[in-house]
Write a structure and sequence with these properties.
Length: about 210
């Protein structure tokens, strides 16, 4: 049996995943969490074979949490399950240590395929995403979008700025100093060419990054 931990801040989503996983003879829904802290506590309490992780888990960035998981549990595979399109987040998630990425709108069969593939030690992205990666390689590399120029921490702050959060609010949410967040904001503006938070908000909304 493949023992699975599910982390999502929506109880309805966790309930649906429980039902899908529990109906498979080779899979066990072994635990669930609604926040980053709950998930880390759960993973420390007993062994799991795989984590299904929502990319947006409360205030904390899913990428940041993913890195934490891989640092503490380096052999534990993680499948990112997200509402965001693959072309916006999949590569960043894979680089951060995820073993797979799929969108929440995917079919139940795709989820089960992804879980089994990852549990066997392989990587999963959708066929469409695999084709895109192959096409990018054939053209000599992918077209880099503005937000892809940012580091993971800068991207996390970029998303929060795009959600209308102030520098002070972001500093409090991420347990950083206002000066540190302001420095990151300056780097974000330099890398993207934006000149104001309003431009960041417009970009984030148009690219559905929140």
């Amino acid at each position: 049996m493949i023992r699975i931990a599910v982390a999502d801040d929506h109880a309805v989503v966790r309930r649906g995943l429980r039902q899908i996983i529990s109906e498979a003879n080779d899979l066990e829904f072994a635990g669930e969490a609604g926040s980053a802290d709950e998930l880390l506590t759960l993973l420390r309490s007993r062994p799991f074979d795989l984590v299904v992780l929502d990319l947006t888990l409360g205030v904390r960035s899913g990428i940041d949490l993913l890195k934490h998981i891989k640092s503490e549990f380096p052999r534990l595979p993680v499948l990112i399950l997200s509402m965001h399109a693959e072309n916006l987040f999949a590569i960043r998630a894979l680089r951060a240590g995820a073993s797979g990425y799929m969108q929440k709108e995917g079919a139940e069969e795709e989820l089960l395929t992804a879980i089994r593939r990852i549990a066997s030690g392989r990587t999963y992205v959708s066929p469409a995403m695999a084709d895109q990666i192959a096409d990018d390689l054939a053209r000599g590399g992918p077209q880099v979008l503005l937000h892809e120029r940012l580091s993971d921490r800068e991207f996390e702050i970029f998303q929060l700025l795009g959600a209308g959060k102030s520098v002070t609010e972001i500093a409090h949410a991420l347990n950083l100093s206002v000066k540190t967040v302001s420095t990151h904001r300056t780097h974000i503006l330099e890398k993207t060419g934006f000149t104001s938070n309003a431009e960041i908000v417009e970009y984030v909304m148009s690219h559905q990054l929140r």
